[in-house]
User: What shape does this take?
Amino acid sequence: MSESSLRVTTPVKILLGVLFVADAGFGAALALGLLRGLSPWLIGGAYAATVLIAVLAFRASRARELKRGFDGLRDLTISDEGIRLPAGTLSTRLVPWGQIADISTRRSARFGDGYVRDALWLDLVTGGGIESSVQRYTPRGRLEPAPPQRRQFEQTAILAPALFDAVVERLRKELRHRQLHAQLRSTRLREY
Assistant: This one.
């Protein structure tokens, strides 16, 4: 799900319904001749204002309908084998713990809705990196457009900054735990 989701929040649905009923009532009153002395500019301005309010409310509602919070983390799973994350539109990839050197945040490269954000990356022991679909929320006014030639997968999970940082820290702790466990196991095997 991207930021351009077609869902609308309930308060905005109520506001849109009230504006629609008000415009319909105003239009009916005009058609029946109950409001004869009004200027066409006043009538047009009233309709334009209600349409503008409806459009702004709709856009604000859509911007809030992101995969946020824990709902957005369904794409990223941790197991004893490693971390499973989206690898494309309908595929996932399991990265074994032994191949992960660190968890870091860098600018998004493949996932997103046409904008560049901070994303969670798995740094590999080979020197490469794998981008996850988990990204940090950035207000629309601060977003940079992604380069046009960049391939995009829109299944991005956009988290609030505090939750994003907590997820990164939790994954780093899990990775350190797994690395220490592997070192301890290899030390025990060498002793015997």
Notes: Confidence is low (pLDDT under 50) at residues 1-6. Residues 48 and 122 are 49 Å apart (CA to CA). The beta strands are 77-78, 82-86, 92-96, 100-107, 115-116, 118-124, 129-136, 144-145, 157-159.
